[in-house]
Design a protein that fits this description.
This protein is of the alpha/beta class and 438 residues long. The chain has 17 helices and 14 strands. The radius of gyration is 24 Å and the shape is globular. The structure holds adenosine monophosphate (AMP).
Length: 438
């Protein structure tokens, strides 16, 4: 199958070529013709499959083929109608989708923009007032603009709900229902979701009309281009193991997942002290800090990005060679989302998971879902055994006995500088620890 076989017009084919795509991905081959035919689509697909182009290309073609009538509003005689609305769960994903419309629509004249929270509303308001054809939005900020009277959705021809399961997880369903109530019923609707829990199926029953279901790579089979390795490691050994692994592994970009925002910052501090360039992205960071962290990671200035799951959702960064699960996740599907950041669009990638004794249940659930056992990291070429960190005897924190153990350790860090984190750098191939045997 070639892009030329998909009935796409020349400007779009040109844009696809410029983007360097040679052949359509499976979801593109299936979804593009359906959208061109005006069908409603229910697609079970996750990031990394090329799903954005699968809906953006045919939407651009449909909008270009039927120019919208100009508004008759005398105050804004030339303002455009919003003709396509894409709802997405996170700021980063909204921006990426909007950028994709820019990439694929570069040879057409349609206007697109993204609106999301966490940044000043005024520039968004100005852009919206000047008129856009395609609006990509997170639900909360869209409702704000609607309340301000800046956005009218009465001319929507195509509605896309992207990563619907994540919007459900993030509690956006009531917002989405409120937005849906203002959109014309006569429209084309596309719903994309990595998983299909019952509320998403119910939503799709309510809003899609005779949809065609498309399933490209089930969430559990997305792992095929990725090698999965597991380190058996105790919790307190993780910081030094992470340094050793990064010092001994050739990686282009490594994305490290922690369970908490606090944990992400802590890992960054630890890596920075070890001379490894790292930054964090999580929900407590300002939008500017998140944008900076992403830009540094994209440009290669920062080799390691430490992220929490929500913040990482939808990150579209090419060439992530390693995903490191510093903390394993309780939800096996999240493992698949995480590793979906590597091995994208056919490239190969490596997933390394730090499995502590309390994680064995989670590990089994992941292995069941992806139907592949994680290989013991001891078999990795260049394997570095976790070492029991040389943690100096921990005194209780001087003043605050209510702090938990982690915080205490944190409080003691400066005093610990010469002991705890040097081990891996002095001795790269320590004896295999007993816990390394799974
Ligand atoms: P998505 O699943 O939409 O997040 O896309 C994942 C990545 O695949 C993005 O970096 C796209 O630029 C890239 N991509 C999309 N379609 C293709 C294609 N046909 N060939 C190669 N790469 C693609």
């Amino acid at each position: 199958m070639r892009f030329d076989d998909l009935r796409l017009h020349k400007p779009l084919l040109e844009a696809v070529r410029t983007a360097g795509y040679e052949t359509p991905t499976p979801i593109q081959a299936k979804v593009i013709p359906l959208v061109l035919d005006g069908q409603d689509v229910l697609a079970c697909a996750q990031t990394g499959t090329g799903k954005t182009a699968a809906f953006a290309l045919p939407i651009l073609q449909r909008l270009a083929a039927s120019p919208a009538p100009k508004r008759s509003d005398r105050r804004r005689p030339r303002a455009r109608h919003i003709r396509t609305l894409v709802l997405a769960p996170t700021r980063e994903l909204a921006q990426q989708i909007s950028d994709s419309f820019g990439t694929y629509g570069r040879f057409g004249g349609l206007k697109h923009t993204a609106v999301f929270g966490g940044v000043n509303k005024n520039p968004q308001t100005r852009t919206l007032r000047s008129g856009v054809d395609i609006l990509v939005a997170t639900p909360g900020r869209l409702l704000d603009h609607m309340a301000d009277g800046v956005v009218q959705l009465d001319s929507i021809e195509v509605l896309v709900l992207d990563e619907a399961d994540r919007m459900l997880d993030m509690g956006f369903m009531p917002d989405i229902r409120r937005i849906l109530a203002t959109i014309p019923k006569q429209r084309q609707t596309l719903l994309l979701s990595a998983t299909m829990p019952r509320p998403i199926r119910e939503l799709s029953n309510d809003i899609l009309i005779n949809p065609v279901s498309v399933e490209v790579a089930r969430v559990s089979s997305a792992a095929e281009t990725v090698e999965h390795w597991a380190y058996s490691v105790e919790k307190r050994e993780k910081p030094s193991l992470l340094c050793s692994v990064l010092e001994n592994t050739p990686y282009s970009r490594a994305l490290v997942f922690t369970r908490t925002k606090y944990g992400a910052d802590k890992v960054v501090r630890h890596l920075t002290r070890a001379g490894i360039s790292a930054d964090a992205i999580h929900g407590n960071k300002s939008q500017n800090a998140r944008t900076r962290a992403l830009a540094g990671f994209r440009s290669g200035k920062t080799g390691v990005l430490v992220a929490t799951d929500i913040a990482s959702r939808g990150l579209d960064i090419d060439d992530i060679s390693h995903v490191i699960n510093y903390d394993l996740t309780d939800e096996p599907e999240t493992y698949v989302h995480r590793i979906g950041r590597t091995g994208r669009a056919g490239a190969t990638g490596t997933a390394l998971s730090f499995v502590s004794s309390e994680d064995h249940g989670n590990l089994r659930a992941i292995e069941r879902l992806i139907r592949t056992p994680l290989q013991p990291a001891a078999d990795l070429p260049g394997y570095v055994a976790p070492k029991v960190a040389v943690v100096q005897a921990e005194r209780p924190a001087r003043t605050d006995s209510r702090r938990n153990g982690d915080t205490n350790r944190q409080g003691h860090r400066p005093a610990n500088k010469n002991g705890a984190h040097r081990g891996p750098r002095r001795s790269r191939r320590g004896p295999r620890s007993a816990v390394a045997n799974r």
